[in-house]
Design goal:
- This protein is mainly β.
- It is about 15% helix and about 35% strand.
- The strands form eleven sheets. Strands 1, 3, 5, 6, 9, 10 and 11 form a seven-stranded mixed beta sheet that branches. It has a six-stranded antiparallel beta sheet with strand order 22-19-18-16-25-26, with helices on both faces.
- A hairpin with a 2-residue loop joins β12 (about 210-220) and β13.
- About 45% of the residues are buried.
- Its EC number is 2.3.2.13.
- Keywords: Acetylation, Acyltransferase, Blood coagulation, Calcium, Cytoplasm, Hemostasis, Metal-binding, Secreted, Transferase, Zymogen.
- GO terms for molecular function: metal ion binding; protein-glutamine gamma-glutamyltransferase activity.
- InterPro entries: Ig-like_fold, Ig_E-set, Papain-like_cys_pep_sf, Transglutaminase, Transglutaminase-like, Transglutaminase-like_sf, Transglutaminase_animal, Transglutaminase_AS.
Length: about 725
């Protein structure tokens, strides 16, 4: 078996791809000219390094000034484009007139200077903005203190550090020392970095906040749940670097946030690359964890790294939560975004076709497109030098495996500004995202003779509301206007025309098709629906004309996945209404608990479709709505006080629930996820128990609990806590 070729420092010969941050091949400790040791040469006769100090404690300026003091790591973690300090101790006093040394940073197994994987840092008199350099800031006896500045575009990852000293016969280099390993991250505080964000509150939220809120539910019943991103937890930074290693991403590209975020969007799902999470939308979660049971990203990423196999299971909000951890951990500002009524049509043609029979019923065989009640993706902040000026800033990146992009299931980064203005020609995947927020709902009658007739269209249903977490709080921020202009504005029409000009498809011509051409207006409301109880659907008809009309209506109720895909119909009812001139009438349809309880899916979504035909004119009216059943919550209480001291006191946490299953508390306050198994909980009963928590970080934290069982999921609760700092002795 042939030996692996030695690394070529300085890029002096072709080498295999350098795709692993974890792989190593150390440079020689002695590099002599000609390769032969001169007679009488003794390395100890020259300047030797006796020790290197990195000032890597959490309270040291290196971590505080670089905003990396929250990372639970004993390694030095810094951000690029910004100086940090090291101290080198020599065997004798350093004399700059006759001694020459430099610091070297190496990453991967096959480092090359021209690839940025071998970095000889020059000692300079003054540091230059955005460039590698080292400046002597203090000399004392045998010690030299340096300010080392990484380039603002250098590779992000874990570097090995060496000190090389020049002699008349060659170079003497320190040996491999894991204690001097240095992590270099993206730097939103550095103006020269591609991820620079100039607002301090935004940096605090989108980089440093390790607890977030993800919105889900339905447009008329928006729900939220906290998510522990945990980007500073022990082992998470290494897990994020491992994700890029598993992708076989070349190290030379890991300083580019465009490439890093695109690779991340592919690797967070396991669809085609053995990535982090396996998606499942069929309500069957054998041999894994149901998506609704996760409360954060930490367990998922640590399990992926330790097992080196994909974790089961995720859905869109889980993919988005894990991807947000990945981005923030590496230093890229990121946030989770939720789009209510998100279009998913496979060819991104800006039209979702709902086919109806001539009697107004939905034709399920022809209707293939779906509208997700909500869909979560991420936005990452970065410049886009590959696009025209003005398209930097927030970029859509989506790790939920929906459609293939350049041979892999991934999406983005796509400029939000480009999407808003219809510039879908710019990479990556802008047409798909544009369709998710701008598609029209087209109602088409499939006639018995095989022809299709467009009946009406709804241009406001898709992308109804796009939200993210507000800065500095748990509330909701409406960002719909960053993706689209208001319906009916001239700018909105111009954006659509621009998208069509750049290749967005709209196969059916809907020009001139009225949004509603009937004198009859129909709408319906679903009464607050509580799990296990009867409720009613109220359908209202209004006659706006002086003519008497009769209407035949059909109501269909289906159990649906949150993706809009129907599992099966549980309710269908036909009724007739006579409308006198200039009048309105309501019709109540009762839904019994026994009709839906035996078929419920994970998020307890019910979808109602009401179609009606005006008998005198044959006009078709159609409306659809989804509702989420109100389900129980977990109640969490702290036994005595809501204030605990880290590593000092134990606090009793009481959790109660009134539906059965397994409850988990995440490592927000507990260091590890706590699980509690409940064999059975009878109807209308309550179960309570206590857990002992040992907080380990101070500040505002959350206790998050989720319950999962075969019969009910998405049962959830949380409690805000403030952890006191450890008392000084």
């Amino acid at each position: 078996m042939s030996e692996t070729p030695e690394p070529a420092f300085g890029g002096r010969r072709a080498l295999p791809p350098n795709t692993s941050n974890a792989a190593e091949n150390d440079p020689p400790t002695v590099e002599l000219q000609g390769g032969l040791t001169p007679r009488g040469f003794n390395p100890q006769d020259y300047l030797n390094v006796t020790d290197v100090h990195l000032f890597k404690e959490r309270w040291d300026s290196n971590k505080v000034d670089h905003h990396t003091d929250k990372y639970d790591s004993n390694k030095l973690i810094v951000r690029r484009g910004q100086p940090f300090y090291i101290q080198i101790d020599f065997s004798r006093p350093y004399d700059p007139r006759r001694d020459l040394f430099r610091v070297e940073y190496v990453i991967g197994r096959y480092p090359q200077e021209n690839k940025g994987t071998y970095v000889p840092v020059p000692v300079v008199s003054e540091l230059q903005s955005g460039k590698w350099g080292a400046k002597v800031v203090q000399r004392e006896d045998r010690s030299v203190r340096l300010a080392v500045q990484p380039a603002a575009d250098c590779i992000v990852g874990k570097f090995r550090m060496y000190v090389a000293v020049w002699t008349p016969y060659g170079v003497i280099r320190t040996s491999r020392n894991p204690g001097t390993d240095t992590y270099i991250l993206f730097n939103p505080w550095c103006e020269d970095d591609a991820v620079y964000l100039d607002d301090d509150k935004e940096r605090e939220e989108y980089v440093l906040n390790d607890i977030g809120v993800i919105f889900y539910g339905e447009f008329n019943d928006i729900k939220s749940r906290s998510w522990s991103y945990g980007q500073f937890e022990d082992g998470i930074l290494d897990a994020c670097l491992y994700v890029m290693d598993r992708a076989k991403m070349d190290l030379s590209g890991r300083g580019n946030p465009i490439k890093v975020s695109r690779v991340g969007s592919a690797m967070v799902n396991a669809k085609d690359d053995e990535g982090v999470l396996i998606g499942s939308w069929d309500n069957v979660y054998a041999y894994g964890i149901p998506p609704s049971a996760w409360t954060g990203s930490v367990d998922i990423l640590l399990e992926y790294k330790s097992s080196q196999t994909p974790v089961r299971y995720g859905q869109c909000w889980v993919f988005a939560g894990v991807f947000n951890t990945f981005l923030r951990c590496l230093g890229i500002p990121a946030r989770v975004v939720t789009n209510y009524f998100s279009a998913h049509d496979n060819n991104a043609n800006l039209q979702l076709d709902i086919f109806l029979e001539e009697d107004g019923n939905v034709n399920s065989k022809l209707t293939k497109d779906s509208v997700w009640n909500y869909h979560c993706w991420n936005e990452a902040w970065m410049t886009r030098p590959d696009l025209p000026v003005g398209f930097g800033g927030w970029q859509v990146v989506d790790s939920t495996p929906q459609e293939n992009s350049d041979g892999m299931y991934r999406c983005g980064p796509a400029s939000v500004q480009a999407i808003k203005h219809g510039h879908v020609c710019f990479q990556f995947d802008a047409p798909f995202v544009f369709a998710e927020v701008n598609s029209d709902l087209i109602y088409i009658t499939a006639k018995k003779d095989g022809t299709h007739e467009v009946q009406t269209l709804d241009t406001t249903h898709i992308g109804k509301l796009i939200v993210t977490k507000e800065i500095g709080g748990d509330g909701m921020k409406d960002i719909t206007d960053t993706y689209k202009f208001q319906e009916g504005q001239e700018e909105e029409r111009l954006a659509l025309e621009t998208a069509l000009m750049y290749g967005a498809k709209k196969p059916l011509n809907t020009e001139g098709v009225p949004k509603s051409r009937s004198n009859i207006h129909m709408n319906f409301e679903v009464e607050t629906a509580v799990l296990g109880r009867d409720f009613k659907v109220v359908v209202t008809f209004k006659n706006n004309s002086p003519t008497r009309y009769s209407v035949t209506a059909y109501l269909s109720g289906s159990i649906t996945f949150y993706t809009g895909v129907s599992k099966g119909e549980f309710k269908n009812e036909t009724f007739s209404v006579t409308l006198e001139p200039l009048s309105f009438k309501t019709e109540e349809v009762w839904v019994r608990a026994g009709e839906y309880m035996g078929q419920l899916l994970e998020q307890a979504f019910l979808h109602f479709f009401v179609t009606a035909r005006v008998n005198e004119t044959n006009d078709i009216l159609a409306k659809q709505k989804s509702v989420a059943l109100t389900i129980p919550k977990v109640i969490i209480k702290v036994g005595t006080k809501a204030t605990l001291s880290p590593c000092h006191k134990e606090g009793g946490t009481r959790a109660g629930l009134d539906q059965g299953g397994k409850l988990g508390l995440p490592p927000e306050v507990t260091r590890s996820c706590l699980l509690h198994l409940v064999r059975e909980i009878r109807p209308s009963s309550t179960v309570q128990w206590e857990e002992v928590c040992r907080p380990w970080v101070s500040g505002p934290r959350k206790l998050i609990a989720s319950v999962t069982s075969d019969s009910l999921r998405h049962v959830y609760g949380e409690l805000d806590l403030r952890i006191q700092g450890r008392p000084s002795v």
